[in-house]
Design a protein that fits this description.
The protein is α+β, with helices and mostly antiparallel strands. It is built from seven helices and 21 strands. The protein has three domains: about 1-140, DNA methylase specificity domains (Adenine-n6-DNA-methyltransferase TaqI, Chain A, domain 2, Alpha-Beta Complex), CATH 3.90.220; about 140-190 and about 345-394, Bipartite methylase S protein (Helix Hairpins, Orthogonal Bundle), CATH 1.10.287; about 195-345, Adenine-n6-DNA-methyltransferase TaqI, Chain A, domain 2 (Alpha-Beta Complex).
């Protein structure tokens, strides 16, 4: 169990298995209000300060030693933490270290599974009143079975956390590799020589997103469209069930095609304008959000779309494109100025090899993400069965 990760809530037990007993929820652990502290007035240190959303910052002195639990009192409710080191529970939390005959780890899982957010007593800012716990009951086993359940769920958490760390490591490795390859600091075997500066307009032309549309045109119809966030957050547009848009037969709208690059033409910061994503699939009746525009390579152009998406999203691309952004409170990118943009671009075969390295790394990360999702689903099933006594370990 990661001390900084919340224990995910699952449905509470609805019956009492043999050998279990029904007790008030409040009897699992005596909860107390946290202590006032602000980051501005606290002394710097290594002691974690837990707020309702987890570790917020660090201070010099601790207030509570483990074993103890922390959960949100105000703001974000329902997440339960089990710190493994001395800590400071903030005033926005409830904390407890008096468990009686109960296993602290089991209590943390049981409270997380109950769903404390359901006990919200406020009308504006979500607030958990610890006195409300007295009105609710929960079925629990004896200490030995509590420990067995907690151990099994901790093993599931360890697997999930290990996969999360591995995915984070792989992403950093990819980031470092792309930084070197996209600046020619590192060359793949068989490639040498200087990269030439070339304008993007030598490789293709731009086209606009949807035009003349009103709110009533979206959510229905035979057309589909790529949303703004699909472009903003991805190197490669994910193939999915895109939202619908109504396109009349008489309209002249631009279709998105395989191999296109899609750009966000508007952003709140100059650093995020002109991000782009490759379209790796062919589809009919797919269009583009009106706040974006597309780039289509010319036939026979020595141009690898995925390489260009990587380059434009890299530090090199960002440093050059942000200077093209125009505006004050919201920044826009002219299609004409983008086509004039000079970028360092290698030969076609080196572009292709760099794109392949990126794709292979992405495939490895996606496989790990699939394993992570499966591990989370397995843990969810374990919680539903173990914390209700449907499956017994003792």
């Amino acid at each position: 169990m990661n001390k900084s990760e919340p224990i995910q809530a699952q449905p509470p037990a609805s019956f009492c298995p043999d050998g279990w007993r029904i007790v008030p929820l409040s009897s699992l652990c005596k909860l107390q209000r946290g202590f006032d502290l602000t980051q501005a007035t606290s002394e710097p240190g290594t002691v974690p300060v837990y707020s309702s959303s987890g570790v917020s910052y660090f201070t010099k002195d601790s207030k509570v030693r483990p074993p103890a639990i922390v959960t949100g009192r105000k703001g974000l409710l329902g997440q339960v933490y089990l710190p493994s080191e001395p800590f400071w529970p903030h005033d926005t939390t409830l904390w407890g270290n008096q468990f009686g005959s109960n296993s602290p780890r089991f209590v943390a899982y049981a409270l997380g599974a109950f769903g404390l957010e359901k006990l919200d007593a406020a009308t504006s800012v979500p607030t958990l009143n610890r006195n409300n716990l007295h009105a609710h009951e929960i079925a629990i086993p004896e200490h030995a079975e509590q420990e067995a359940i907690a151990e099994a769920l901790s093993d599931a958490d360890a697997l999930i956390e290990g996969l999360e760390r591995l995915i984070a490591k792989k992403r950093l490795i990819k980031q470092g590799a792309m930084q070197d390859l996209l600046t020619a600091k590192r060359r793949l075997p068989g490639f040498s020589g200087e990269w030439g500066e070339t304008s993007l307009g030598n490789f293709g032309t731009t086209y606009g997103g949807l035009s003349g549309k009103s709110k009533q045109d979206f959510g229905h119809g035979d057309g589909r469209y790529v949303e703004f966030l699909d472009v903003l957050t991805n190197e490669v547009v994910p193939k999915r069930e895109f939202p619908r848009v109504c396109i009349a037969n008489t309209e002249r709208q631009n279709h998105v095609r395989r191999g296109d690059l899609l750009f966000n033409g508007s952003s709140e910061t100059p650093e995020e304008v002109g991000l782009c994503a490759e379209v790796p699939f062919e589809t009919d009746d797919l269009y583009l959000n009106s706040f974006c525009f597309g780039f289509r390579p010319l036939p026979g152009a020595n141009f690898v779309p995925r390489f260009m998406a990587l380059l434009i999203r890299s530090g090199v691309g960002r440093s050059r494109i942000k200077h093209l952004a125009q505006g004050a409170t919201r920044y826009n990118l002219s299609k004409r100025r983008l086509l004039e943009l000079q970028l360092p671009i290698p030969r076609f075969d080196e572009q292709a090899e760099i794109a392949l390295v990126s794709a292979d790394m992405d495939a490895e990360i996606q496989a790990l993400e699939a394993r992570l999702e499966k591990a989370r689903q397995v843990k969810e099933g374990m919680m539903q069965n173990l914390l209700t006594g449907r499956i017994r370990l003792v």
